[in-house]
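Input.
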Amino acid sequence: MSDHHVISRRAAIAAGAGAAAAALTALPGTAAAAGSPPAAADGAGRKPTVVLVHGAFADASSWAPVIGRLHRQGYDVVAPANPLRGLRHDAAQVAAVLAGVDGPVVLAGHSYGGAVITEAAGSADADVRALVYVAAFMPDAGEVLGELSARFPGSQLAPALTQVPAPAPDGSPGLDLYIRPDRFHHVFAQDVRGEVARTLAAVQRPLSATAFGDSVTSAAWRSLPSWALISTQDRGIPAELQRFQAERAGSHSVEVRSSHLPLHSHPDAVAGLIRSAAHHVRN
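Output.
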């Protein structure tokens, strides 16, 4: 691992919709949360609880390969449901989950989940000690997610999206975004087995397009140590954007030759980075 020091609402939605889905996140499944037995002591201090926040077009089960590895290392894990209804709403939900966790926390987010943890960690009544970003957005205060996602070229997400009319979080007419099933494998999970990618595409949850018109009010990575996994073959969030964000935040970063879904294609690397953050918290 190395250190890389390294709108009208409609307009924001349009910009974000493309790379937007970039927020694309993870994959879907069907679990809301997972826990493990009490952690065994193996270092100086108490092992932190690991809280994992999924991204768009997925649910918490997208973290399943990583959760199993963390459990085997004795970590308590919580993987809450990210509503995918807009940055403010989603961050408030995650902050409420964090408030119920006793003791130190390592908070990790994948894809759009990175923006959610950036906002949630600063407002939560919880002992968050470290942030981990996995092929994720890392916005700064005042940045609009749709604009950030379009800052660097390379995302293939926009043409792969389909829009479905649906109520916005405030009840007004809005749009839900999905990844077209016939594009899911190529655009987001090219290094994941085809049958797995097809299942993930079939069970994906939509992201409200309003998420990409929201701006971040505070950036928790400015006050907390952060770790970043950069997926160099990412067709959702370009690797150059991931590097820019990690360098700006002064994150401890590692690069992996992965699609946007290293949770499935490189779970050992993801779990290893989370353990690195946890070791920092304990020492």
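The two ends are 18 Å apart (CA to CA).
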